[in-house]
């Protein structure tokens, strides 16, 4: 059960980080439709996933 609890915490941390850090980049990409804007958003998502990895 500890892994489920840890997973919940990680998912909450990711959700907060996505809202605070990547959502604006996603909206900029949707507006611009440029490869650079898409890459900036995808890089930020990858960074957040690395910062808050799912428990094994």
How do the strands and helices of this protein lay out in sequence?
Blueprint: H1 2-32, H2 35-51
Helix pairs in contact: 1-2
Describe this structure in words.
With 56 residues, this protein is an all-alpha fold. 86% of the residues lie in helices and 0% in strands. It contains 2 helices and no strands. Helix 1 runs antiparallel to helix 2 (35-51). The radius of gyration is 13 Å and the shape is elongated. The model has no long low-confidence stretch (mean pLDDT 94).
Offer a concise description of the structure.
With 56 residues, this protein is mainly α. It is 86% helix and 0% strand.
What characteristics describe this protein?
86% helix; elongated; single chain; 56 residues
Structural shape = elongated
Order of helices and strands: HH
Helix content: over 70%
Termini separation comes to: 13 Å
**Amount of beta strand:** under 5%
Quantity of strands, as a count? 0
